[in-house]
Prior knowledge:
The chain is mostly helical. The chain has 14 helices and no strands. It has helices at residues 6-18, 22-34, 40-52, 56-69, 74-87, 90-102, 108-120, 124-137, 142-154, 159-175, 182-194, 198-211, 216-228, 232-250. Helix 9 (142-154) packs antiparallel against helix 10 (159-175). The radius of gyration is 24 Å and the shape is elongated.
Amino acid sequence: LDSKNCYNWYFKGWIYYANNDYEKAVKFFKKAEDKGYSDTDFYFEFSYAYGEVGNYKKSIEYANKYIFMEKDSASGYYRKGHAYLMAGDNQKALESFSMAEKRESKCADMYCRMAFLYADKSEYDVALSYTDKALKLNKHEADAYYIKAGIYSIAYYDFKKSLKNLNKAKKLYESIGDHFNEEAYTCYISAYGVLGQRKKTLEAVEEALELYPDTLHFKAMKVFALQGVRKYKEAIFFFANSVIYYISIFSGGFYE
């Protein structure tokens, strides 16, 4: 490798970038820049790589360099918005995504992020409009259904619509080999419970425990779900075993 040739440093970094080794990509991109390399795609890739290693300040810095060279491009604002979102600055993230949208960016993933950010500001109608925009672009966008479900549940107490959207999201996640996280399962179980669908509540909590067997609040939910279908002895037995299990853990196995 010719250490004086900035393009060679960039190309080596790009190979690591293409193989998702972002720490090494950053290392060689930095060498390329130190040697004078400058390019719009380079700055975008540098911003992305910094974001993937958790350096969001640098990710924003290089997104801005990209934007300086490509002022009319939506991509830089989208990249900057994502970095701000990961850094926890929701307001600046929303501002950046809005700038991308003004530049005719049409991206289901971005619309989902905007929906989340508007919901976080309690602007629920606007948030729902962005989930609809996302689904118009991609009817298989699972995150859009999940965000809709959360809004209908938290903001409007419409648990039927919430459950309908949760089921759509769940099927889509499973179709790509993914599954609900603990938060999603909590919403899923609660929706069935609020709607009085007791058997479905029990089925949902048992499914959640298959994936998250040590989650305490799922164990508590199962006790109530068993009581809901009048399996009182089973509820008592499950509760007692759960208590023994946790005593065993916290006592270092003394009661095993």
